[in-house]
Structure prediction request, 452 residues.
Amino acid sequence: MSLNPSQETLETNNITGQFRNDDDSVRNEEIKTEAVIEIDVDSKQGISHMEKNYIINNSKMNDNNNTSYRTPEGQLIIYRLQRTQSPRKIKITAFEERKVNFLKYHTYIVECDPPPTGVINVARRYNDFKWLRTRLSVEYPGIFVPPLPPTKLMGRFEDEFLEERRYDLERFLQRIEEVKPFSESPSFKLFLSRPESTLAEGKKNIEDNTKTLSQITVDLQSIFPDLTTQELSTEIVLLDVPRLKEFLVKIESEMKALLTVGEKLFEHLCELGNDMSAFTKAFDKLISAERNYPYKPNIERQDINKPLEEWNKFESQQTEIYYEYFYRALRHEYEDVVAFLELFKYRETIEMKWNKAKARVDKWTNEQNSLELKFKDEQTKKKDIEEEKELAAFLAVMTKIMLQNEISVVWKEKTETWRRQTLQFAELYSNVTQKLAMTWKNVKVSNNEDWQ
Prediction:
């Protein structure tokens, strides 16, 4: 994600040298630390008096520009505007089963706080979420669009599957809301407010008004004005782009393998819980049989029903904690890496189109030196030159956004989320383990007292 209003300061590095080997010392010296600070348009929150005076005296801030200044220590402070309103609270409160003829499907009930005018909630199918993500990818190429949950999720029962999808779809909408361009896009506004009866018509109107590549380039430049003023060196395109992609492909492969093992571990924990439950019931039957037998010996077996029940409870809690705070976090990371690789795939498509356009322009240049072009050929040549410039401008801004903003923000969010989830996992797992240990400790104490 990018342009997160809750993220007051983001430390980033210029991409120059970021994916180099250690022996590239000359290029590494070019790295300069920047602080990107997002400011509320009206209140200018989060800035010092000196910085506020600089903004007032040196530039007029509006929705389409930003300002920056360099501190006495040489650090470049870059300001980007955030929207004036606070992020809405978006929830999926329920899922509902519906039937049309012989077909069955589910809808998810989406609510906003504050809600759109005249809207309480809207019901959306999974395909509606797919449409929204596709539109945001088309309207803001180069900006990381959070992924949707896969069509198949791990779950033993249908309700578990639907609840997991509800959780992930709600998380998707919340992440979209945190990104200023996405939250203010017509597609997202339509998604959150349009009744089901006219949703298809609204979608078509938006698709019919898709912007040209030049218009999209201008939009991206207005969102990231500090990046668009920087030159994009040939070395970055030839080295940093393939190296970053190679890195992400490797991570994607390793995470996929890890998730495969993680799924097996989850299945093992589920089976272990089932076996533990069966063992507890069998032991309870044994205790009952021994106690109720009329000719039983006077010495009774040590009763550990309560510890076994706690053990059974522990196995169930262990499975839930593992899935919610460990496996799910890994799955979300993997899905983010796959989604970022989608940006590279789209970029490669644009680069191929640009190379073909550039080849046509070069051909026109060579032919012009040898003969006079006809009027029709001149028109075609002009069209090819315009297309080449359009593709080159778009490719440059998309590359800069991907390398100098999105990967840093996505990776920072990923590592912070992983740290938070693992700490929660450790705390919860430690608590349930200590509770189980205490139960068995009490058995030991009781047993020693009985034999004294």
